[in-house]
């Protein structure tokens, strides 16, 4: 009897483990596919960790990300560090000359269409223009 229980436990663990693996693999594949065209850069691991976090949060809050959450999920891995010459968040001197050119409207426009080595929408094709605008506003507020 005890032995049967042990075997049953093993089976159950194997099945549950298998399901978790399938889910995990499905997710990883979907991410690789959707991101295939958009990134090939050394920040890739950080990006994917972010994306995983984003999709897990997405289940709960879906479209209702705050600007700060959007920034963390989609912009931070470049703008936290100033990767590739991006204006670093919190550094007023990095933002001032850009703001001086055409105000926040121009910054939002450039963030949406892409600028220099920054791809359109900072590699977040599913972000709405409003989300991008809110993220830019957040970055500017933190940098003034
Ligand atoms: C892959 C790295 C990367 C990601 C991700 C990224 N950016 Fe950028 N961003 C840059 C770089 C590089 C520049 C500077 C481009 C230049 O001036 O040539 C830049 C510039 C900007 C600017 C200044 C535009 C201007 O007119 O001077 C804004 C605003 C901006 N990013 C917003 C965002 C927002 C919002 C996100 C997230 C949705 C984001 N970025 C994600 C790399 C990135």
Question: What would your notes on this structure say?
Answer:
- With 144 residues, this protein is mostly helical.
- It has a domain at 63-142: Orthogonal Bundle (Cytochrome Bc1 Complex, Chain D, domain 2), CATH 1.10.760.
- It has helices at 2-36, 44-61, 67-79, 92-113, 129-142.
- Helix 2 (44-61) runs antiparallel to helix 3 (67-79) and helix 3 (67-79) packs across helix 5.
- The protein binds heme C.
- Heme C binds next to helix 3, helix 4 and helix 5.
Number of helices, where a helix is a run of at least 4 consecutive DSSP H or I residues: 5
User: For the report, how would you describe the main beta sheet?
Assistant: none
Q: Which architecture of the domain at 63-142 per CATH?
A: Orthogonal Bundle
Order of helices and strands: HHHHH
**What's the end-to-end separation, in Å?**
70 Å
User: Got a strand count?
Assistant: 0
- How many whole angstroms does the radius of gyration measure? 20 Å
Ligands (ions, cofactors included):
heme C
Strand content: under 5%
Structural class: mainly alpha
* Outline type: elongated
In round numbers, the mean pLDDT is: 75
